[in-house]
Every structure is written in structure tokens, then in C-alpha cells.
Amino acid sequence: MAENLDITIDDNGVTPTKSGKKKLLLIPLILLVLAVQTVAAYYTVQYLFFSHAAPKTTQSSEVAAADSAAVEEHKAESSEASGETAEELYEIKDIIVNPSGTLGRRYFVLSMGLEVSNAHALEELKAKDAIIRDALITLLTQKSLDYISDVLNMENIRTEIMQTVNEKLQKGKVAKVYFTSYILQ
Length: 185
Fold this sequence. Notes:
The chain is of the alpha+beta class and 185 residues long.
């Protein structure tokens, strides 16, 4: 009873036989398997390559607001203190870097105020702006995303920035670093 017949072609057209009907049933099954594999491959690629690209929310806005308030408070105190030699503030805006290990998918924006002890150091900072920005970009691109996003490392980053800038100055030194913007995206 098991006849092994194929498709026959006659004057009336194509007439499928028993084995031809089995072959026609395999086509939708093969298409279903291919569809499932395509969907699985898509989600696997999304998970492996793009799961870490989504921006994480950090406390950067709170930190930036607090540091900005500290800079404004310092400016107010300096202007009120008459008779004393006021420290000078030099502002560096929007240093934008890709943290180490992010493959360009994340970025870090930092703006800061540098407090220097005298006007000569302030003039030197203005004259060496490009050199100092380059040194800071080099320093910050070496930091990993985890290091930058950890609020506990902010004081370490301040210290490293101060040391990096002080290496470039000859007429004075940076006494303090105030972050006015600290954005991690």
C-alpha cells in the first residue's frame, strides 16, 4: 500500500501524488523554522552588541547642580571679601570624550571651574587653553565607564585633573577644581 509516486504532468496540468503531497507539506515547515531562526538571531545580536548601548541614568544632574551651586557660592564669597586677595576662577566648558571600553557608544561631558591663586596663573591658563584641554581629554579618555559613573571616584577625578593641569603651569597652581557639568550618556 505504500506507493512511492511522484508528481505527474499530463495534459490537464500537474497532478500531485502521495509523495508529492508530502513534499508540499515540508515547505511551510521549512519556512517556519527559518522564521524562528531569524527572530532568534536578531534578538541574540541585539543582546550581545547593543544591550550596553542604552544610556544609564546617573546622579550627574544632582552632582552638577551641587557643584554649580558651590562655584556660585565661592564667587559670591570672593566678591564680598574686601581687602583679601581673591582667588581667580578659570572656566573650561564642555570637554567631551568617549570613556575607555565603550567603543564610541557612550560619551562623557565635563565642564569645570579651576581656582588658581593668582592672576598670572589665570593668564597662563588662558594662553595654554588648547594644551590643557588636550591633556584633560587624554586623561579622561583613559577612564572606564564604571570609574566615571561611580560618584565615589569624583574626588579622585578632581585630584587627577588638578595634577594634570598643574604639570602644564609654571606661573601658579590650581588650588581647587569645581565641576559645573558632569554628564554621562
